[in-house]
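Chain X:
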Amino acid sequence: MSNQNIDVAKKRNSWGRKLKYIIGFSVFIWLIIGGIYWKKTSNQPKEEYSQWSKPVPVRVVPVQRSNLDVEIKAIGTVVPVHTVNVQSQVSGVLQQVYFKEGQWVEKGQLLAQIDPASFKVALAQAEGARQQNLAQLNNAETELARYQLLFKQDSIAKQQVEQQQALVNQLKGQIQSNRAQVDAAKLQLSYTRIYSPIDGRAGFKQKDAGNLIQANESTALVTITQVHPVYVQFAVAENHLTGLREALKSGQQVKVSAWDKAEQQQLAVGQVQALDNQIDVSTGTLKLKAVFDNRDDSLFPNQFVNVRLSAQTIQNAVSIPSDAVQHGAKGTYVYVINKDHKAEIRSLKLGLSSNGQIEVLAGLNGTEKVVLEGIDRLSDGKEVQIIADDQPHPPVMESAAG
């Protein structure tokens, strides 16, 4: 091997040793730095990251002790007090219509006119026949008077007098029949003018002027509904029957309010008018009918409304929001906050409910505070943090993966 090659090999060995020293020194320095950092961090207290060990934020409400108005909610239908299908009692051509569709009409108001010409002719004929029979009667009575005079003078036989008397009686009967025919013709003539039988609102007309109308046909000329007052018909569960019957028997007015579909606006206030005479066995409900004055026309026939019936008032009742009540294997319960700000499970016996409040028969004395929001994270003995009403809602617990 030449001297030049030997020198190159020595230089390579020298650089290799230097590189190993540099790498070893760097590793040593990093080990020292890592040890110092570990020592500092190990001396610091560990931070608790588990949200489950922290107090649970909750919103509470006090238990109320006051009069509880029990309301029964139902869906009702507005029913007119009277609905009349106005029909013609005689046949003829409709000459004139005197009402407008949707117009308010009064009892006795003229609605329509049917051509009276043929009925006037029939009346004239009946009156003519009556006058003819009256003339015959006058003549027969004159003859009867003459026969009676001659009979007294023993100039004629009694049989002639009796025959003339029979003729007079016959003519009197015909005149009575004529009088009835005249009255019938007048009645038929009066039917050509159609009047409103009730106060109410007229619907759409089903016949126009110029059409031929048949007597008592299936299609009415117009329908009139009476809506002052108006009824609302609805059904309640049969377990309310006893209380309602007792209230009505005692003369008490059972208040009923009608609300719109969204239950945001009260439309009218009335009272129970009557109970049905039997319970519907298929649904277990009892039909009721409430009457409303409806002078402002807030209720419309066949309209669906939400009904609230004031069934009874429970004096000095202990009540809580229905949303605070929980249901478990041991029954119904609520979470009560004790003086140590910890949650306690309190079993309840519940009564009637109304407008989001429910009566507590046993389990609370009226001085406690129950948890309304944040219940999903609570357990018996869990420490809580009470959130004021003006603060944001309690946060929802996120999963560990989040």
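Chain Y:
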Amino acid sequence: MTRRDQQRLYDITTAIDTIRQHVNRGDLSDGLIFDAVRVRLIEIGEAVKALPNDLLEHEPGVPWSEVAGMRDRLAHHYFDTSHAILQATVEHDLPELEQAVQRLQAHVDDD
């Protein structure tokens, strides 16, 4: 595990924390909140894309390719972004992702 990989895991947890702060300020019907959350989800996907597969394999329950694919969709098809999909991602997927990343961080710290 490289320092760069540790930084990417940190980037993901920081983005999740920031999304939580944005949502605490308002809901996704507010354009600023929506855009801020979308950008942080793009950051998460970018960080995931930079992580090595052998690390991600330690958390096989996470659909890593879908996380990366969502980044591409949000970055390239921003006019087609569904509020409902973002809401579901924030409510249901991010807590699971956060737990998986924390386990990966613990795994890295043990090495």
